[in-house]
């Protein structure tokens, strides 16, 4: 879902946003676009349903009460067809029964209006992350942003490039991509890469990170592996210049 590689090259994550509150939907669409997502917007349930049926999305953000067809009906329709696109409901309905109904209809998450932007973005990232890991278990490929890792063939792809990796580089990159936006300490990385083996010298991690960066971060490409001085590293595809309206 997330992107890239031999098959996807540089496809960004696609989101369908369906909400009839223009004063909310338009600014939210702009924010999600600045976050690096491709966003389609529509304001009624009928066109939202048509888009969800005819185009490929990584996430649907649906208002519950929509003209012509409700978000609940769109979600139920997709689930009946066996489509497992993650669905995040946005709604003013805030009772426990409403939440249960939304989740039972096939929704993956539920956010009550008004909401904090940071919470919405965190939920979007979590749903996309979860769906990318699910995709990996099926395809053997893991993708985040414009980077795809093919563990079976021990190669990565970015911006159309084929990147050959050593076994340890593949394992390290997989660990990062399965834990985006999380601080991974030197100890955690060491334990993950050498569990059951005699650990190497402590500077091996820094050397391995340096080699991996040279391969996956060429000039002009966004930085993926960020050093958290004195603690470890964080894998982040975005740039975090957020002020109530933005991400990494």
Could you describe the 3D structure shown?
The protein is of the alpha/beta class and 248 residues long. The chain folds into 2 domains: 5-137, Rossmann fold (3-Layer(aba) Sandwich); 142-235, Arc Repressor Mutant, subunit A (Orthogonal Bundle). It is 42% helix and 21% strand. It is built from 9 helices and 12 strands. The strands form 3 sheets. The chain has a 5-stranded parallel beta sheet, sandwiched between helices. Strands 6-7-8-9 form a 4-stranded antiparallel beta sheet. It has a 3-stranded antiparallel beta sheet with strand order 10-12-11. Strand 1, helix 2 and strand 2 (38-42) form a beta-alpha-beta unit. The two termini are 19 Å apart.
| DSSP summary: helix tally | 9
CATH topology value of the largest domain: Rossmann fold
Q: Radius of gyration, rounded?
A: 20 Å
Biggest pleated sheet: 5 strands, parallel
Per CATH, the superfamily of the largest domain is Response regulator
What is the correct CATH architecture of the largest domain?
3-Layer(aba) Sandwich
Instruction: For the largest sheet, list the strands in their spatial order.
Output: 2-1-3-4-5
Précis, in short:
With 248 residues, the chain is of the alpha/beta class. The chain is built from nine helices and twelve strands. The chain has two domains: 5-137, Rossmann fold, CATH 3.40.50; 142-235, Winged helix-like DNA-binding domain superfamily/Winged helix DNA-binding domain (Arc Repressor Mutant, subunit A).
